Each structure stands twice: as structure tokens, then as C-alpha cells.
Amino acid sequence: MEDLLKIAKDLGCGLKLEPFTPVGRGADEEILSQDAYFEQFMLALKLAKEMNVPLKSTYSSGFDPKCIFCAGDGEMFCVLPNGKISTCSRVTKDDDLLASTFIVGKVLDEKVEANPVQVESLRHLNVMFYDQCEDCFAKWYCMGGCHNTRLLNNGVMPENHCILEKAFLWTNLIKAVDSN
Ligand code: SF4
Ligand code: SF4
Which of 5, 10, 58, 93 has its CA 20 to 30 A from that of 138? Predict the structure, then answer.
């Protein structure tokens, strides 16, 4: 993270550092533990402040309460190279495990066709409908996490996600109290 901050400084840009997602070429790679990611990110945050480089993570998004994690719930349409429409930017191929969930239509010569029933069924991807999140103090901060990750993990977010969400929220709450 420190090296990436130096590159960002040289380029004059900001940085967003996320935990590693095991997809594509990285599907079989070992994942950095959530504790190591949190620890490294907190160190990087301190350094970024000193270096004046804007640094973010999905987990450090601040207090902006919402109930939907991303527009993959049928709001977003990504047009794939084959003309099909996916509402999740991680689902880009017909043989993706979640293709039948997120590929909702196609662009034709004269019009765009989307299956309204399928789009409507994506609306349940909302923290208000998740049993796992019902009593979680971080629910309006986390918003239930990435729909794709949740669906691939039998409808629940993996524990490492929840640990990070809670750790970042708790840290931000303490900072907010301290600054007042
Ligand atoms: S991968 Fe997750 S966060 Fe990204 S678009 Fe799909 S559901 Fe949303
Ligand atoms: S941290 Fe876990 S349990 Fe809490 S809202 Fe997020 S996904 Fe749900």
C-alpha cells in the first residue's frame, strides 16, 4: 500500500484500495486476511494524510446511510461486448455462475430488450430483506455488501466482509466522537 501511495503521489492522483477479490486470473490466489488488510489500510491512511494523497476504500465510505449496496439490484445496465445487458459489472459472460440472475436483456438494432420480471426480482437485493443483517449495528453503513458475493456464498456475506465493515465503522465512530 505504501508503494502504491508513492505512485499515486507521483501521478498526482488519489487511490482506492480494496481487499483482494478472488476472481478471474486471481481466483486461486491466497487472500490477505481481513485483519492484515485492516491493519495495513490504517497505516496507509495515516501515511496518505502526511503525503496529501486522497485514499479511500469501500469500507471507509463515511456516514451515508442507504439500504442498497450498489446499482446491481436492477438499476444499472452494463452492455457486454456481445450486446447482452448485465446489471452487475462482475458478470460479463454467458457462462458466469450468476449469468441467469444478472444478465437481464440485450441491445438489438432498433431497441433494447430487458426482462421486467427478472429486473424486478433483483429488487430483493436490499439489506432490509437479509436475515443475516437484521440485528447488525452496521447495516445502514454496510448496506448488506456486494450482491454478487452474497449470492455466490449461499445468500450470506462471508465473515471477513462483516468483520471489516464493523471494524471500519467502529473506528470511524470513535474518530467522530474524538473530534467533537
Ligand atoms: S460485483 Fe458487487 S458491487 Fe460490483 S456491480 Fe456486482 S453486485 Fe455490485
Ligand atoms: S456487516 Fe455483515 S451482518 Fe452487518 S449489515 Fe453488513 S453484511 Fe449484514
Answer: 5
